[in-house]
Amino acid sequence: MDATFTLFADDTTLSLTVDSLVEAILGMEAVQSDIKAWSDASGLLLNQSKIQQMVFSVQELERNQALLLHSPDEIRFPTEHMIYTSDDHK
Questions:
Q1: Could you tell me the pTM of the whole model?
Q2: Which domain does 38 fall in, by range?
Q3: 73-85, pLDDT tens digit by residue?
């Protein structure tokens, strides 16, 4: 799993490169747990209500498969989504 952190002011973006949706979810949960442990040990407070995860795929998804947006406490489907294929860009 390849992880990249991008820092801007007081925001941090974490990007993971993985081979499957399951690996993406498990990887994000593991990294979030590590970040929480580090921040607790450092006396920092994370605003859990601002944490969101988005899953993107470069592989073609089935037309009925929605991408998920989720925070640590809930999983929700976007109200709208589009799935683009390579044919859409020709």
A1: 0.55
A2: 2-89
A3: 555 555 555 554 5
